[in-house]
Amino acid sequence: MDLKDKKIVLGISGGISAYKSPGICSLLRKQGAKVKVVMTQAATEFVSPLTFRTMTDNLVYSEMFEKNPSQALVEHIELTKWADIIVIAPATANTIAKIANGIADNLLTSMMLAYRSPVIIVPAMNTYMLNNPATRQNLKTLRDRGMLVLGTHTDLLACKDVGDGKMLEPEEIVDEIDTVLRKKDLAGKNFLITAGPTIEAIDPVRYLSNHSSGKMGYELAREAMKRGAKVKLISGPTNLQAPKGLDLIQVQSTEDMYQAVEKYFDQTHVLIKAAAPADFRPAKQAMEKIKKKDQDQMVLELSPNKDILKTMGQRKKDQVLVGFAAESENELENGLEKITKKNLDLIVINNIKAKDAGFKTDTNKVLIVDKDKQVQDLDLMTKTDLANVILDRVLQILK
Ligand code: PMT
User: What separation in Å is there between the alpha carbon of 298 and the centre of ligand 1?
Assistant: First the structure.
């Protein structure tokens, strides 16, 4: 996330989901954002303005005509001038209707007649209200005006109906804010990113695989997308939720991954191979489950898989190629060998034995080496931050 010093106006209208708005505020503040809160009178019935006053270190705005002499007279205009983004969460059917129709009968809706920054509308209401043609039309009007209208979750609602209309969670909302505000420095670039392990079937029950969770590759895909790239994520089997908005191609074996990479490689500007494909597969895949017999040992014969990255390295024209190396010893030496052998622009070398690094962890500690053998020795950091460091390096090469 990159929300440090971003100026965010959080508008809150009067629905039960307003109980989640302090959570949004808290996450934004933790990311270093500056927050000003605007509440409708109805919203103040659900959550106290004092909560937001304390959390934001700022006055909370709700009255059109404030009694407080320190507040500006034309607050609704001052707020729109100040904001990098306006987020209305929750946005009730009533407030959405007023904004769509230009009604300005409170500070929040008056502000929405004068907005000039990006706007995110986060609806929350009963299913029938959401599906009412009036609300549908109003939401369409807001979308047509260029506002980002987020979806809702289906769940048991406060009114005891089960259905669509539950407000998104604070984490999801803050993630959307981050996406909108992010500099789109990778716009116009096609990224092909691989993630996760591959699995090589022995028989219908057993397979060979490795410990890759896919986290590193998924973070690269998510961050590249936030920065404006068009991303195809080729993923082996993982338990991860793919970020919305990218093209997910799910594969099983190294051969499947090879086929997918080769299909899209020519239209790709940047290939990042964070996956851990199996180097070998069983020479023969048994069609039926192999039976345990009275035997002292079982020998499994293996055949080599194609080296996907090496093949693309031989074929590359002006694509940027980034490889990873998972090493347990002599990492720099082994990594340097791979950068030459596979014709890479960058290699990211993890020592999989290092603490909190490599497989499965949320953090990683790596060396990044370029073609000229320049070594960047990075501190331990989250895989999200590392993804951005790698993308910064890719951007330099693209320029
Ligand atoms: O998924 P996580 O749990 O987050 O863990 C991240 C990671 C440790 C898996 C990742 O950061 C990583 O190091 N990935 C590369 C693992 C690997 O296969 O390393 P390697 O040294 O065996 O391969 C070197 C490069 O060649 C890699 O970019 C690999 O994708 C590629 N390769 C390998 C074999 C093969 N048959 N084809 C390939 O393209």
Answer: 28
